[in-house]
Amino acid sequence: MYAVVGMLEDAGEAIYNSAVLCGPEGLVGVYRKNICRSWVWTSDGARPRPVPRVRTLIGRIGMLICYDLRFPEAARCLALAGADIIALPTNWPQGADTSPDFVAQTRAVENRVFLIAVNRAGEERGARFIGKSQIVDPGGRRLALADTTEETIITARFDPTLARQKRLVIVPGVFEMDTVGDRRPELYHRIVED
User: Fold this and answer.
1) 109-163 per-position pLDDT tens digit
2) Closest Cα to residue 104, out of 138, 56, 78?
3) pTM of the predicted model, to two decimals?
4) Exposure of 166 by Cβ count < 10 A (0-12 exposed, 13-18 middle, 19+ buried)?
5) Which of 105, 65, 121, 59 has its CA nearest to residue 84?
6) Using an 8 Å Cβ cutoff, are 137 and 158 in contact?
7) How far apart are CA 18 and CA 30, in angstroms?
8) Which residue in 58, 47, 11 sits closest to 30, CA to CA?
């Protein structure tokens, strides 16, 4: 079993909003959130780090945290690094329904990866969380959905290696798509300009 856990990480010089991946071999990986909103978290000038992808016994797992999902580049970097699964611990509050209803499925299908989004449920200090944890396949289909605001556990069986099949052949030679291989990076230079 592998578990991705969101936490505050005390790194001595700073505290980070982090996700840790633990498995049978112990601590496998740590991701420190790069895109922070001041009303949720401040990184106090912490340097951005590359989005990591970790090889495990069950597949190659990448991690993002909450708001990171709103930036297509982060999920794309994980896909380009070979992630089969993107794990996303999140805090979707009331009013953030577009993230579980559209963005999670979009990131999975545009990158041809499995996306596992785990959201909070219930209420804390007046903030209500909408649940909707989900497991999405590379075609954008939900394999499991916690369509509740109560705590629950969802599961799904899937083969992570299916995320390595990036080319879709609907009609051979006529209707084929590869949203990773057909990229045109030379057209996107404005994405990396300040």
Assistant:
1) 999 999 999 999 999 999 999 999 999 999 999 999 997 788 899 999 999 999 9
2) 138
3) 0.88
4) middle
5) 59
6) yes
7) 7
8) 11
